[in-house]
Amino acid sequence: MVTLQKVHGSENSFFLLDETQLTQPLSDDQLTTLTQRLTNKETGLLGGADGVLAITDAPGTAGKMTVVNTDGSFAKLCGNGLRTVARYLSEKTGQTSFRVHTDFADLAVAKQEPLAAGVPAYSVEISPVSFAPEALPFANLGTDRIVDTVLPAIHPHLKFTAVAVPNPHLIAFVSKDELAGPDLERIGKQLNGENPYFPEGVNVTFAEILGQDTLFARTYERGVGFTNACGTGMSATTLAFILTHPHQAALDRVNTVYNPGGMVKTVVHRDHDHYWIELIGNATVTATITLPEAALIDGDLQQAVIKQTGEQAAYERFVAALPHRALADTLTEGA
Ligand SMILES: N[C@H](CCC[C@H](N)C(=O)O)C(=O)O
């Protein structure tokens, strides 16, 4: 039998699968097929999800995280998901501070004080960070560095920042009306379909500046579409905030980022010539799913035994008490 978890960070939801339970790890094709099956909002389990987080052994770290978007594409990193993987590995190994392996870096993670009763929290390292065109990749935009830059091919007057953390992000600071308007979806769809600018797609975030060190972020994700939150997106956005609005944000200072699914904290650090971002937020397990290994491999979900954990109620109490809920509630994607 195999047990998966249904998890979320800021209501950005995933199925978490510890592949070390399996007689052999899944192939990339099997993981892609399983992800599309499990996460489908109509035919998947528990109303679907935004992706799958697969854990495998990795020498010298507590384990490796592989991220698959709901469309089956692989992602370089997932900030909200990494917090739930940190919790899973902490509870599995008893460690509270350790590293999780990804193809691009071994990332430091640590258990934090709960955000509220029944709302466990973890901090995770978001890195490596790069503004280089080949890191996103981007091309055909008339520049090899996009920081506070108008990109007429994408929007007539918004100023964008593009950064890989290491998955690709394109960020603009906008008004409240623009945040709720049609442009985010239009740009998200344009740059995640066939296009000469971001050939591998890009996560697009619009953020409203609410005050010093305080943002509201909404993301149209590569490989998913709108989600309630994007951890790497909120991390990249606070780096862009510091670079483009130096009177309202600063390195090594705590930022609060509200999103349709809740809230996270970030701190942007700079070591010599490179940035890294600390992302702190909830790691909630809403259910466990148990089924025979063969049924999992075959995508036969009929046999799945589902147990709710009861944690969602505590998370909803925490979110209900947050400021800016009115704006969030107008933007929440079905949980
Ligand atoms: N859609 C993203 C991966 C998930 C990132 C997001 N869910 C997060 O929390 O960082 C990509 O393809 O780069």
What does this structure look like?
The chain is of the alpha+beta class. The chain folds into two domains: 2-123 and 282-320, Diaminopimelate Epimerase, Chain A, domain 1; 133-281, Diaminopimelate Epimerase, Chain A, domain 1 (Roll). Helix content is 23%, strand content 37%. It contains eight helices and 19 strands. Strands 6, 7, 8, 9, 10, 11, 12, 13, 14, 15, 16 and 17 form a twelve-stranded mixed beta sheet that branches. A seven-stranded mixed beta sheet has the order 5-4-3-2-1-18-19. The longest helix has 15 residues, at 79-93. It is globular and about 55 Å long. 46% of the residues are buried. Bound molecules: 2,6-diaminopimelic acid (API).
Principal-axes shape call:
globular
Q: Based on helices, strands and strand pairing, what is the structural class?
A: alpha+beta
The rounded Rg comes to 19 Å
SSE pattern: EEHEEEHEEEEEEHHEEEHEEEEHEHH
Count of strand segments: 19
CATH superfamily of the largest domain: Diaminopimelate Epimerase, Chain A, domain 1
What's the helix and strand layout?
Elements: E1 2-9, E2 12-18, H1 28-39, E3 51-56, E4 64-69, E5 74-75, H2 79-93, E6 97-101, E7 106-116, E8 119-126, E9 149-150, E10 159-164, E11 168-173, H3 176-180, H4 183-191, E12 203-211, E13 214-221, E14 225-226, H5 231-244, E15 254-259, E16 262-271, E17 274-282, E18 284-291, H6 293-298, E19 305-308, H7 311-320, H8 325-331
Parallel strand pairs: 2-3, 11-12, 13-15
Antiparallel strand pairs: 1-2, 1-18, 3-4, 4-5, 6-7, 7-8, 8-17, 9-10, 10-11, 12-13, 13-14, 15-16, 16-17, 18-19
Bound molecules: 2,6-diaminopimelic acid (API).
Subcellular location: Cytoplasm
InterPro entries: DAP_epimerase_AS (IPR018510), DAP_epimerase_DapF (IPR001653)
Site (Could be important to modulate the pK values of the two catalytic cysteine residues): 169, 221
